[in-house]
Amino acid sequence: MIRDITIGQYYPVQSPIHRLDPRVKIVCTLIFLVSLFVQNSVLGYALAFVFLACMIHVSKVPAKFIGKGLKPIVILLLFTVAMNLFLTRGGAVLFHWGIITITETGLRTSVFMAVRLVLLVAGSSLMTFTTTPNGLTDGLEKLLHPLNRIHVPVHEISMMMSIALRFIPILLEETDKIMKAQIARGADFESGNIIQRAKAMIPILVPLFVSAFRRANDLAMAMEARCYHGGEGRTKMKPLKYHYQDRLAYAITLGYLIAIVVIGRFVPFKLWIF
């Protein structure tokens, strides 16, 4: 399960998506995520799926990597589906037994929520797979730069997010090593009830926190030794500039958003029913 977490990982390959400006990928990802909430039809979700599948194909990131990132959310996905399936009322009753009632509206809502969650995680994963942590930092700092006028520490916020993303794969690898070392010494993390499993995790959490604090201290000392004092007056080795392909990406994403809004507004309700 630890190895299935793909947040913060970068897949190095040459593709049109990788070469886009980080600002474009951040904005287009936000537009895609917003589009999942502005419509509620089968055709709309089908269009979102096709759009995301095309972007994954163009990015040259293997689909299995995107799928691997969905494994850690299986429990959340099942919980979301169950809550919407059994607690949503409305429409014709499809199944009733005791206190369990499944309605047409509950079934439709649970399916839509599941699809929405899967597309949301897959779209976010695609952005991190195709953008380096430094690129995300520069793009986010550039997008939030106007907030400097109201004294928001944009550079510091971007730096913290970049460091967090950079350290996620490192900490996951460290956790995997600690678990293997504990298992080799006879530790058992699978058997027992929830309380026993939680207690079994203590030998992992203690050295993991110690390692995280040690790495944070080493990073702080390295930044101080290099006279790091924030982003004021700093220049970029590779300044961000928009090119033709960036404007084209904006146009394609905007066209997709318009299509989604039109579908959600004008497609007859009857087409929403399974």
From TrEMBL:
It is a multi-pass membrane protein. The keyword Transmembrane applies. Belongs to the energy-coupling factor EcfT family. GO terms for molecular function: transmembrane transporter activity. This is Energy-coupling factor transporter transmembrane protein EcfT. Forms a stable energy-coupling factor (ECF) transporter complex composed of 2 membrane-embedded substrate-binding proteins (S component), 2 ATP-binding proteins (A component) and 2 transmembrane proteins (T component). Keywords: Cell membrane, Membrane, Transmembrane, Transmembrane helix, Transport. The gene is ecfT_1. Its main location: membrane. The lineage of its organism: Bacteria, Bacillati, Bacillota, Clostridia, Lachnospirales. Transmembrane (T) component of an energy-coupling factor (ECF) ABC-transporter complex. Unlike classic ABC transporters this ECF transporter provides the energy necessary to transport a number of different substrates. It is found in: Cell membrane.
